[in-house]
């Protein structure tokens, strides 16, 4: 089976005035269908930067990212957005839900961005997924009217609503207490298993990381022995 994502020799530096910050150095990564990978690393080691680059939200200074045999580097913003919408789900470090929209509208959003998806159908799929994450009774709540764990579950539903082949999750349980973190991760794994979605998850929690198929340690922008 061909990989979903291949990253070759990814480098990222930020140049601001005289200050040059090298964040990622020569990173390679291959992700296969259905695979669950955990990335751990201390704060500032480059985890979010890497996820953003893999998801086409940011560009590397050098190196290539291939998603389903297409190179993201040569694409413009619109094309990258389409690739993301078609193949990827993204769970941000700080959920990034749209404050003025309800839970069901937030989850339906990636479907509504697609051409020719009727609003009713998008709402229906979003509702089904919100029911799966135990939020059937909170459909019309705005993010400000939800608890932290509930928001995180809305963000998971939004990432999975398009049935992506890969979910990139940046500390999906980072802001939750232990019990909620366990249940959110359990939920993510369960949905991911039914949909055969691959998962690349950043976490600070080695216990959660141990549940993945493969663990990677990022230190100062390079892979190290886990
Ligand atoms: N726009 C920028 N300009 C300069 N440096 C940046 C910029 N964005 C990020 N960095 C630096 O890159 C490094 C990696 O940041 P990143 O957000 O990827 O870390 P992280 O591993 O996700 O950390 P955390 O666990 O705290 O979320 C940090 O040292 C940060 O200061
Ligand atoms: Mg981060």
Would you summarize the structure shown here?
With 226 residues, this protein is α/β, with parallel strands linked by helices. It is 35% helix and 27% strand.
Structure description:
The chain is globular and about 50 Å long. The chain has helices spanning 47-54, 77-87, 103-112, 119-132, 148-160, 178-195, 206-209, and strands spanning 5-16, 19-31, 36-40, 62-67, 70-71, 88-91, 166-170, 198-202, 214-219, 222-224. The chain has a 6-stranded mixed β-sheet, with helices on both faces. It has a 4-stranded antiparallel β-sheet with strand order 2-1-4-5, covered by helices on one side. The chain is 35% helix and 27% strand. It is α/β, with parallel strands linked by helices. The chain has one domain: 3-Layer(aba) Sandwich (Rossmann fold). Helix 4 crosses helix 5. The structure holds adenosine-5'-triphosphate and magnesium ion. Adenosine-5'-triphosphate binds at residues 14, 16, 21, 23, 41, 43-49, 93. Magnesium ion is lined by residues 47-48, 93, 170.
């Amino acid at each position: 089976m061909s990989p979903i994502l291949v990253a070759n020799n990814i480098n990222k530096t930020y140049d601001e005035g005289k200050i040059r910050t090298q964040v990622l150095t020569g990173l390679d990564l291959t992700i296969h269908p259905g695979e669950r990978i955990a990335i751990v690393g201390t704060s500032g080691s480059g985890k979010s930067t890497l996820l953003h680059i893999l998801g086409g939200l940011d560009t590397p200074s050098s190196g290539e990212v291939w998603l389903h045999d297409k190179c993201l580097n040569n694409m413009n913003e619109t094309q990258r957005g389409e690739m993301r919408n078609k193949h990827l789900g993204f769970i941000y470090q700080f959920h990034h839900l749209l404050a003025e929209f309800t839970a069901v509208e937030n989850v339906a959003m990636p479907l509504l961005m697609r051409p020719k998806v009727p609003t009713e159908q998008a709402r229906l799929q979003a509702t089904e997924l919100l029911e799966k994450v135990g939020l059937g009774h909170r459909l019309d709540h705005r993010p400000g009217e939800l608890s932290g764990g509930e928001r995180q579950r809305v963000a998971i539903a939004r990432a999975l609503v398009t049935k992506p082949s890969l979910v990139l999750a940046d500390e999906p349980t980072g802001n939750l207490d232990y019990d909620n973190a366990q249940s959110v991760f359990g939920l993510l794994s369960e949905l991911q298993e039914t949909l055969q979605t691959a998962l690349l998850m950043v976490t600070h929690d080695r216990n959660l990381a141990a549940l993945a198929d493969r663990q990677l340690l990022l230190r100062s922008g390079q892979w190290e022995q886990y």
